[in-house]
Design the sequence.
């Protein structure tokens, strides 16, 4: 079967796409709210910072892709 569409694969094959990725979680790490996902090595990886403090965004320990200990 051939699909001629402009829709991305993720929307067409939603079930298999969601099974491969872990669901993001909101956690507080040292008082900074962050969204994390679990990677292949079962480590928490920062996806997004949700802080209202601008200094938290300048902290080099918290940036997207950083592994939390």
Sequence:
């Amino acid at each position: 079967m051939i699909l001629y569409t402009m829709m991305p694969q993720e929307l067409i094959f939603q079930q298999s796409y969601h099974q491969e990725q872990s669901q993001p979680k909101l956690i507080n790490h040292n008082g900074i709210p962050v969204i994390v996902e679990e990677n292949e090595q079962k480590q928490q990886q920062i996806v997004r910072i949700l802080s209202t403090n601008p200094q938290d965004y300048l902290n080099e320990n918290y940036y997207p892709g950083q592994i939390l200990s």
